[in-house]
Amino acid sequence: VHGGVDLTPNKDQGVIKVVQCPGFDVDRPMIGDRVTVHYTGKLLTGKKFDCSRERKEPFCFNVGKGQVLKSWDIGVLSMRRGEVCTLLCKPEYAY
């Protein structure tokens, strides 16, 4: 993926992050922190299957604790407050 960064510890390209808008904070969340995100879930075909903004309700979870997809734990731990990015995930890091 052009401009993407492999976030996986073993560099198997299971989670690729492409930043659309950098965040405005220098700190990143730590494992166990409560985070609030908006997201749009899409298949590689571009078909949308979920969107928090359409429900007008952000999603909250404790990052790094296995409460969400493995790709979200990995990806969100790399983000800064206000950052907008795309996470491209292999199936073993998604559902």
From TrEMBL:
It holds the Pfam family FKBP_C. It is an enzyme of class 5 (isomerase). Keywords: Isomerase, Rotamase. PROSITE patterns: FKBP_PPIASE. It comes from the Eukaryota. Its EC number is 5.2.1.8. InterPro entries: FKBP-type_PPIase (IPR050689), PPIase_dom_sf (IPR046357), PPIase_FKBP_dom (IPR001179). One of its GO terms (cellular component) is cytoplasm. It catalyses: [protein]-peptidylproline (omega=180) = [protein]-peptidylproline (omega=0). Gene3D superfamilies: 3.10.50.40. GO terms for molecular function: peptidyl-prolyl cis-trans isomerase activity. Residues 32-95 form the PPIase FKBP-type domain. This is peptidylprolyl isomerase. It comes from Oryzias melastigma (Marine medaka).
